Amino acid sequence: MKYSKIIDTIYQSVLSADNLGKVPTYIPELAQVNPDKFGVYFYSLNKQSYGIGDCDEKFSAQSISKVLALSLAYSIIGDQLWRRVDVEPSGTSFNSLIQLEADNGIPRNPLINSGAIVVCDILLSILEDAQADFLTFVRELANDDSINYSILVAESEKSVGYRNFALCYYIKSLGNIENDPIEVLNFYFKLCSLELTCKSMAYIFSFLANDGIRMHDRVQILTETCTKRVNALMQTCGFYDESGEFAFKVGLPGKSGVGGGIVALLPNQYSIAVWSPKLNNKGNSYRGMKFLEEFTAQTHTSIF
């Protein structure tokens, strides 16, 4: 299939329609981003690739990084991970405190804020230098040593991250954080500040479309079973409390971030990344959702 022509057509159609939604103003640095940016990059496992628009411009990965932190922790400790974090959709917003008390400090899944904070704590306990080791992991997935955190974004998030502070201290009080909460939060804010392009993001996530195997050197990052489980979590939990809607309309495992990025993949075939900063009322990229819904409809590709 010639994906480039379909991508061009959908891109122009979405670009010419209304760009609804709002950039997130609660993180000061993200509020500065040009709301009209729009990029798409497609990467297939047979090495067909195609990009359009602002696909080479760096943006804040935000929650998309949570999948990579999960993958790193899972690759090291395996199923022990699930003693500390559950695998159920939350049904509440990504920064909700409500369920933690009922669930004795075990977050519903690793892709909401509380779950990612616990994953950060796990990585701090098992790695010598979690911030540096995580960055190395991402650079190796991307085959690109230029990838980095944004100190400006990390500091900006920290300055207003009261709810994340509350989540971390609350989980600590319930016995599911081992390290100093400030250390955990510093790592969490750094993790979310990771800067990627649509091109690098599509390539990084190709290992999850490829049975856990990195494309450029054939290194097995996750076993086939673990890869299937990470993809299942993206399918059921990757879009906050709009995950059901994304499964219904798009039908791919994926993950969104409040930086306006969305990455999605079709196992054994391709990965695709979209970036447009204006978010809908669920915190997902308005144009990104529209593009991917149309893309899977026109290419007849979906896991269903």
UniProtKB/TrEMBL annotation:
Coiled coil: none
Binding-site residues, substrate: 63, 113, 157, 164, 188, 240, 258
UniProt cross-references to InterPro entries, sorted A to Z: Beta-lactam/transpept-like, Glutaminase
One Pfam assignment: Glutaminase
Keyword terms, alphabetized: Acetylation, Hydrolase
Domain of life: Bacteria
GO biological process, one term: glutamate biosynthetic process
Entry EC no(s): 3.5.1.2
Catalysis: reaction(s): L-glutamine + H2O = L-glutamate + NH4(+)
GO molecular function: glutaminase activity
Family: Belongs to the glutaminase family.
Matching HAMAP family: Glutaminase
Oligomer status and interactors: Homotetramer.
Name assigned to this protein: Glutaminase
Native source organism of the sequence: Capnocytophaga ochracea (strain ATCC 27872 / DSM 7271 / CCUG 9716 / JCM 12966 / NCTC 12371 / SS31 / VPI 2845) (Bacteroides ochraceus)
